[in-house]
Amino acid sequence: MPESRVLVFVGPLLITAAVLQLLMAAKTHSRIGGVLGHTALPEDISINAREYSQHIQGSPKPVRQNSSYPKEPFISGTVPSGFLWGTSTAAYQVEGGWNTGGKGESIWDHWAHQPGRTPLGDTACDSYHKTKYGGWTNASMVDYFNDYATLCFQKFGDRVKRWATFNEPWSFIVPGYGLGVSPPQMLFGMKRRQYEVAHVVIKAHARAWHTYNDSFRAQQGGEVGIVLGALWGQPRNTSDPRDVQAADNFEQFFLGWFANPIYGNGDYPDAMKQMINGDSVADPRLPVFTEAEKAYVRGSADFVGLNQYSAVLIYASDHTFPLDFISLVMPDLKGVKDTSDPTWPHGASSGFSAHYVVPWNIREQLRYFSEKYSHKVPFYITETGISEKEQFPPNMNDTWRQCFYMLYVDEAIRAIKLDGRDVRGFFAWTLMDNIEWGSGHSVRLGLHYTNFSDPNLTRTPKASAKLYRDIATSGGFPEGAPHTKHTQDWWDWCHTNAPYNNDTEIGAGHYRGPH
């Protein structure tokens, strides 16, 4: 692989699966701590895109016309030269070899070996042997992480030119230190610990960036950024300033918690400070950056990776019920509720049942980020994908995944061509079916099928692997390409529920879809 096409994650690789697991529980009446949730979408949805745009940014530039699923025209064409295509994986989810080569025990290794649990990650996809590679509450972790990052820069910096310090800090901090549902299952009163951990992580990121900038950039010529989870919060009614403000507050708690210090003014968003600390100056639950720390953190990134899968509808409400995703994981975010739009396609076969197919979330999130934060950097779509439940025999003709990537890649091209966004890469989650954390291999998001019943853990490409390969090798949808024609033929069908429900007989050939 050419060095210009390498993107490496330095920090913990706890992926969007954690967030989607929580979404799943909130949206399907599943239980987390005895809490249920789902709310039907009220009928009073009216959208005024111009008012919404003016309220958010003081500009008449139109954005979403409404929250309903649009059937926009297909855009053919290719991405700029140098655009990166790839797939994403995570060490614990694919490597195995948990106690091989003298490696230390991770928090997930420790958690999975407790009584009553199945340590599926001990083997996972066994990529450790098949490819041969082998406490954030403590402020000292800033130094330890910097030592680790420095070693990585020294050993691999001649080949690796793009580094991401952390992948989705939100999704390992909140479940691990706020909810206590995943390792290390550390809880502290009023969720204080999750904010303390995030404070350490942000400073650790900034320290690693400065180390690279001061000691390695001139010689190696690389870049350092961070990857953030980016669940788009669409105002339910963009004509209602309360919904617009509620959606902005949601974005501040979900994305801005990390984006605002690094890409904004060096500090936490005002909405977070007001809702979490209020007038508590002596003992704030949300830690306070000194002026020197703000200057050190601000601008400490050369790019941003955004993991973008889906969206939620956000509306203003002071009611305690219904209990929803925000109630479960963001109790400090007051006056805000989330729901979904019944017009959004959503597959019955999906393992993450709140994973609606909402490709326009990519353009909306890129717009919001571009307009909200002053530190301008290139974007990488570092994760996106769609799941299905494990089934026997497996269906290798994954029409739902083919449709998903047709629509989402087209949306990325749309962001570049129509909006002028500096998007430089698109990465599919994931290369092969792996261990999706607590769901094991019962939930599958891979372009390749992994046979976990086979001692050799054989991998078999699904139909989506060929489609994605064709898209990546041709840089998108060039005129006259076979996969471009297939996308055009499938376009209307992919905007219905049929491909995602997997309820039609579509045959065994690649690209076989609507009859």
CATH class call: Alpha Beta
In percent terms, what proportion of residues is strand? 5-15%
Mean pLDDT: 82
Subunit arrangement of the protein: single chain
Q: Provide the helix percentage.
A: 25-40%
Radius of gyration: 22 Å
CATH fold-level topology:
TIM Barrel
Alpha plus pi helix count = 18
Adjacency order of strands in the biggest sheet: 1-4-5-7-10-12-3
Distance between the termini: 39 Å
Number of strands: 16
As for the number of domains, it is 1
Describe the protein's architecture and organization:
The protein has a single domain, classed as Glycosidases (TIM Barrel, Alpha-Beta Barrel). Helix content is 38%, strand content 12%. Strands 1-4-5-7-10-12-3 form a seven-stranded parallel sheet. The chain has a three-stranded mixed sheet with strand order 6-8-9. It has a two-stranded antiparallel ribbon with strand order 2-16. Strand 14 and strand 15 form a beta hairpin. Helix 6 packs parallel to helix 8, helix 14 runs parallel beside helix 15 and helix 15 crosses helix 17. The longest helix has 24 residues. The N terminus is likely disordered.
